[in-house]
What we know:
The complex is a heterodimer. By secondary structure, chain A is an all-alpha fold. Chain A has 49 helices and no strands. Among the domains of chain A are: 1-117, Alpha Horseshoe (Serine Threonine Protein Phosphatase 5, Tetratricopeptide repeat), CATH 1.25.40; 247-352, no CATH class; 361-425, no CATH class; 757-873 and 883-917 and 989-1011. Helices cover 69% and strands 0% of the residues of chain A. By secondary structure, chain B is of the alpha+beta class. Chain B contains four helices and seven strands; from the N terminus they run E-H-H-E-E-E-H-E-H-E-E. Chain B has helices spanning 16-19, 29-38, 86-101, 116-124; strands at residues 3-6, 43-48, 52-62, 69-77, 106-112, 128-137, 141-149. Chain B has a seven-stranded mixed β-sheet. Chains A and B meet through helix 15, helix 19, helix 28, helix 30 and helix 31 of A and strand 1, helix 1, helix 2 and helix 3 of B.
Amino acid sequence: MASKFGLAGGIPERRVRPIWDAIDSRQFKNALKQSTTLLSKFPNSPYALALKALILERMGKPDEALTVCLSAKDLLYKNDSVLMDDLTLSTLQIVFQRLDHLDLATSCYEYACGKFPNNLELMMGLFNCYVREYSFVKQQQTAIKMYKLVGEERFLLWAICSIQLQVFCGNGGEKLLLLAEGLIKKHVASHSLHEPEALIVYISVLEQQAKYGDALEILSGKLGSLLMIEVDKLRIQGRLLARAGDYAAAASIFQKILELCPDDWECFLHYLGCLLEDDSNWSNGVLNDPIHPPKFIDCKLSHLADEVFDSCMSNAVAFIQKLQADTSNNILRGPYLANLEVERRKHLYGKGDDDKIMEALMQYFFRFGHLACFTSDVEVFLEVLTHDKKTEFLEKLMKNSESNSAVPTKELGKSITLLKVQELIGKMYRLPKNELEGSAVQMVEMYCKNLPLSKDLDPQESMHGEELLSMVCNILVQLFWRTGDLGYFVEAIMVLEFGLSIRRFVWQYKILLLHLYSHMGALSLAYEWYKSLDVKNILMESVSHHILPQMLASPLWVDLNNLLKDYLKFMDDHFRESADLTFLAYRHRNYSKVIEFVQFKERLQHSNQYLVARVEAPILQLKKNADNVEEAECVLDSLKCGIHFLELSNEIGSKSLTFNEDLQARPWWTPTSEKNYLLGPFEGISYCPRENLTKEREANLRRVIERKSLLPRMVYLSIQSASTLLKENIEVNGSVSDPKISSELKFLLERYAKLLGLSLSDAIEVVVGVSSGLKPSSAIAPDLIDWLNFAVFLNAWNLSSHELAQPDGEGHRPGTWDIVDSLLEKYISEVVRSINPIICAPWIDLPILVQLVTEPLAWHSLVLQSCVRSSLPSGKKKKKGGLDLSNSPLTHVIRESIQSLYGTVEGVMKWLREQIKRPEDENLETILSFVQKTGQNEGPGQVFKILETYVSSVNDAELGERISEAVKSWSPADVARKIITGKCTVLSEFLKICESKFKSLKTLKQQISQV
Amino acid sequence: MTTIRRFCCNDLLRFTSVNLDHLTETFNMSFYMTYLARWPDYFHVAEAPGNRITGYIMGKVEGQGECWHGHVTAVTVAPEYRRQQLAKKLMNLLEDISDKIDKAYFVDLFVRASNTPAIKMYEKLGYVIYRRVLRYYSGEEDGLDMRKALSRDVEKKSIIPLKRPITPDELEYD
């Protein structure tokens, strides 16, 4: 800020500087005082006003700031003699932007530019305003004006970028690119180009129009010398040639690159692709998802004739051999992995030889088998082999790996690789139970035996063999899934906690643990581990999926609130500042980043997780305030009665969603947050491809967001619908509530039903059927919470519409009150009964219970509160004699409904208290008894036994003080205690929620009894 | 087998496994994007087969006169790809760009005085400890300013170690 000095609106610098100094050192009061003095001297200076506005905004007085800004703006417009400089305007701009009034800043600049049409500085300011508003067309027009004024290359490129933005991020047709091309061509003819980035943009404009030949010509011409790194130039050249279909030339270019960078794997794939005339890398069709590029390289079956194919392959092999011979550096994996890729391509062509693939794999193993990345390097090649061949390969590997390496860390690396290959090809999970247990035992032994290797490592460095414990955990969870024996589950936790007490930084363990604890219902513990991952900034977008979905269904509202708040703040801050960074790229002439930044912002704006969080944040506020209808109404007021979210719900169908989560680190049993194998019966091997999950998730999430975003409005309308119920009955007989509310609620109910897959009348049949026992309760189980919400809103709607039969009628149908009451009672008690009382059992149904209480039950209690409120005398108006309502059927059903809810909540509280008050010792013993099984040589506890023995006989000299102390610090009892506390914390939080509801219902009971 | 290419925004969503490592800082967005907007040549990412991100380097070029230099802001490699000289490759790339394209005099970097493994690695790459910056990290831990001279600094003047440690406010900023 302080650097922006100069004469502003005729104010001498010495008067302004102290104010900026005060602002910079955050002494706003002082700054304000000085600015008031300044204004008394220069009352008509827009700059002095802008400064004051800026200070007021920083002091947290947005309204005052806006008023001052507007008067500065008025001054600018009214007074012709006022100096209109960029400093004044940019200061105003800052304040307007912070006040979310970009439009006002833009109009100031527009006005100024109109008044001083040839002022470059002002025009740049205006361009910047359009960048902030993402007005690509206006950006282009302004840039062209600047270009015409001074003829500088950079302004031309600003215009070109603005054109490209119209094509790729706006609704400009591709024809515009021709205009861009023409503009550059003309400029090149007269002025040439001087910046490498300008050349890149020029080439991109041609490439986007598939004018590859033209682009190549320019690249090889004089302009090409702008690119100073030879390899960069070659890469572009290779890409253009390949796109143009000149594969032979492209291949020789890629060959050149490989000679310079023999380890460039992507380039090798391009090289081979070009040899085989495979255009799948280059087609302009649907681009792969850039965030989740496929693990397996896409390639087309070669159409080449046999002999051509053979000669291509032998050329490739010869070239690879040359590369291998030329590279003295034997760490380079590329030239060796290349052999495997050649064999894979042959296989795809139908000329594969499994033995050769295996041989190449063996060779690769001999060279790089000790590396942690061996398995991920060869994964795609193993995939080519049949199951039997994979097993054969594994056997070969085992046989050949017995030779002892002189370096123990390498030896360990190789042993781990062997185990990882077994895991990868699925062999591990086909083993019988005792052998699988044996593998886990072997791994833990290997881990312990090799701990001394890490003795001299820095405590921060990752230790040798750390992966082993993750693999042990995977096996134990697999065993738990197979047998249902909780012991394995507890054992998996113990192993990981053991690993973390030795080195507390292993994020892989933390992620596994947080999922284990989540599954167990010890969510507060899971959240602790999540916090220790220090997930911040952009990682919140890619990593929060590990915890957010569980938290949304939990009673840990404080933590959930923080999670949502931090995440939304990060995203919204980025959306706010992104345009300024785009402008920075313009200013520094890094044009290719301009488009990248705009596209990235759009990607984040369409993030499915962001949309979920945006809907869930206000729903959380509603849940928190549902025990007090006035407070809930305040929340709804701040949400414009849910209108915004209704709009979101309407739009979501046509919006493309992006999936930015990094799912790679998720454990095998829950490859996405919607899927958890452990919830279902054992299905056999645990391999789930992580790719191609996005499409399924997209449809599902769209539905979820659409439905969730209807909620605030439906809650609002339900409260409204009930709000005059008893009052009306006092004064008029019949309904006079706003018919609009009733018709809107009906409309939304129809939509809600549709999202559940049914028409409104069919959906009504379902809830009627289930509540009366005519339909099985499983009929609504998959979307239980949504169905119960539906029932609650249905009842609320019926209060004002009376379209459905009344309970006191002769109908055979139950009234809607009964439906809601019985559904809530039935499902809540069913869930409570189904939860396994054992402390370390997974409480799969606990989240459902929490949601039942905090969503449908809470919404229904709001309806009840609204009803009862309408019966209370308001203000000065005293209750008139009128009709006696105490015996009316309506009062009766409301009273019953309150009583029913009261009883239901009471039941939940009773269960919760029973769980919480169970003595810790008893729980502790239960947990430990699952793993401490003396005398048994199979079943859970084998791995645990090794750990216990190891800890008790730890060799200080061998391990070094640090590690041996860490090993000794592991205490299974402490872990068990943590589990107990973790679970009890969740229960206590839930109990608090229930208690608050209970209290509110008690008050309602009293109030209704006085009606 | 590493493809090294310019870092782009989408990589921010793909570098999780590198950044979850506790020694790798995840900066705020404007930090990354300012580097991308101003010094895209100094921000590179390494990818292994299967499109796995294995590490990255970010840096900048700045300074006046003979202090015109490349600066390594962060360099990091995922644990499973360590001990394969990937960091060296990334560092060499940045040094090359500083030397050949921007004609800088030297490249420098800051490291925690306690981070022995990193200091050793930088020394192997030809960096020397130029000076100690007292309480550089959050006012607690000292930082070491390490430098490597480039071809333009013929007499290697830029790397003659300072005799005394300095305080953070003595650091020259642009």
